[in-house]
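Researcher: We're reviewing a set of sequences before deciding which ones to prioritize for further study. For each one, I'd like a predicted 3D structure that I can look through quickly. This is Type I glutamate--ammonia ligase. If possible, include the structure in token form so it fits the rest of the review sheet.
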Amino acid sequence: MDKQRDFVLRTIEERGVKFVRLWFTDVIGTLKSVAIAPAEVEGAFTEGIGFDGSAIEGLTRSYESDLLAHPDPTTFQTLPWRGEIDPTARMFCDITTPDGQPAVADPRHVLKRTLAKAADAGFTFYTHPEIEFYLLKSSAYGPDGPEPVDSAGYFDNVPGGTAHDFRRRSVRMLEDLGISVEYSHHEGGPGQNEIDLRYADALATADNIMTFRTVIKEVAIEQGVYATFMPKPLSGKPGSGMHTHMSLFEGDVNAFYEEGAQYQLSRVGRQFIAGLLKHASEIAAVTNQFVNSYKRLWGGDEAPSFITWGHNNRSALVRVPMYKPSKGQSSRVEYRALDSAANPYLAYALMLAAGLKGIEEGYELPPEAEDNVWSLTDAERRALGYAPLPASLDHALEFMEESELVAETLGEQVFNYVLLNKRREWQEYRSQVTPFELKSNLEML
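Model: Here's the predicted structure for Type I glutamate--ammonia ligase, in token form for your review sheet.
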């Protein structure tokens, strides 16, 4: 760590960095930032930077408000969109109390704690997110809703289109920040795009997702458009998911791989999937944390609505992707409920905890779904044992409230805060009178 700190201090000096932004997230997953002068960085490494935690959503109760942000030198990067005028860098922070204890409500710490539990069982957790978002002409919207920048579709090549330049600029910026991109393409909805980040350990991935959202927003501003990670901004069009491929490694060996097994998937891999399925409804209020998230889950367009798994079945909640016979190390499972608006630290902590629970308890994996689950009738789904995911945020909160796994993984303070905050959101949503009701009822009744 001392070598890393020295490297950071030397780089700040050599590149003439004028500001260093210290980044962390609140419980909902909003990025927070405080800028310090280069002269303060050494002190920040040794003592942290103090701030009022009670002013940040969910971080502390008001009577224990003093917190310290400790920059993690391994996350140091200069921010490419700030240019050469006033070079600016950033580091992610770990949050502690004044006596040096990790702050229980720091989302990064929640994930670190769960990763430590996996490490105790001999596992490293790798993730690879496919992040979808919409590009709109502006954040304003008229009677027909938000206006996308184009009307293209999946993998479309749009000559001279905004999205090409946008993706190229974004990918270059991400690479400049040390974030490797695997693919980028136009998605199924008008103005919808997807950029997939390369495999990394889950903590690095969560940091990368927070950086990614900032980069996408910055490039949009630069290009005169607006980017949104809202799960379902356009009625009747696909929602924006964050399908995540996951694997556990034991040292250099992929614990999900077993030569000759069905889909080359090991017993550990099968138990991990069984854990994800069994606890899917309990973790939904975090993987899909907004009222709007359920418009995506229940709006068709390849979003999963039922708790099933399958091989290459895009209607399933958990998918075992095609494997390449020569690449045993690439065995993985894909979780398809997660949306682009989730707090990645808390979501990955819960997905990992659910999978680990399946391994610890030896859960049996139910039969796979071979049919398109959406095309079955309710009676057929019931007969096959395909339970639905929660249909609303309210429904998801009922499952979460009863969940020992979620309470234990998030810790009491985060658990209670999420329930409180999300109940308030549901209450506000439920009490409004919507255009749908006015249109349907006002003249007729």
